[in-house]
Specification:
The protein has 186 residues and is an alpha/beta fold. It has helices at residues 16-29, 49-54, 58-68, 86-95, 122-136, 163-177, 182-185, and strands spanning 2-8, 34-39, 72-77, 108-114, 139-140, 146-148, 155-156, 159-160.
Length: 186
């Protein structure tokens, strides 16, 4: 059984990034041998070394346990001020501890991004990839970046409906889990 954990870097109820995560999860739902778990980072407290010194808070322990149980992690990030949102960076800061021995060290990670702009949050995804590889020691899944542009035009009632974007996400997830999803999604 291959386990993929998925995280949206957005907390917004109508987030198109969360819609991308739902589409990614649905793309493997019928795939035998693949288990999917979508986790939220909305309850993760702000990183503070003083708090860490007293022991990780429950929410952090739960997040580390879930991510640590994955064979691969998929993150979808929006772009705030040309970078990743603070809530996602905060979760990665907790997940990166202890340095060099974290649950992300050596973990395969797939990344994608979505934005209502015509750029698809590419800068944020580039920053995310740098944080993961250069800062934490994760291993990027070998796939071209998936940057969903004009995401608000591709989501209806919280669901991604654009065939091109769905195909890009299926390709990324298939590469991430090493499974052919075309038959499952047909």
């Amino acid at each position: 059984m291959t386990k993929i954990v998925m995280i949206s870097g957005s907390l917004r109820a109508e987030s198109t990034n969360s819609a991308m995560i739902r589409a990614a999860a649905a793309s493997v739902a019928a795939c035998p041998g693949v288990d999917v778990e979508v986790v939220s980072v909305d309850e993760v407290p702000l990183f503070n070394e003083d708090v860490e010194a007293m022991g990780d808070p429950f929410e952090v322990i739960a997040l580390k346990r879930t991510v640590g149980s994955a064979d691969v992690l998929l993150i979808c990030t929006p772009e705030y001020n040309a970078s990743v949102p603070g809530v996602l960076k905060n979760a990665l800061d907790w997940l990166s501890r202890p340095s060099g021995e974290s649950v992300l060290t050596g973990m395969p990670v797939a990344t994608m991004s979505a934005s209502t702009s015509g750029f698809g949050a590419r800068w944020a995804q580039d920053h995310l990839r740098s944080i993961l590889v250069d800062g934490i020691g994760a291993v990027l899944v070998d796939h071209e970046p998936v940057c969903i542009r004009k995401s608000d035009e591709r989501v209806v009632d919280g669901m991604l409906v654009d065939r091109e974007a769905l195909a890009e996400i299926r390709s990324l997830v298939a590469t991430a889990v090493g499974t052919c999803l075309d038959a499952a999604s047909a």
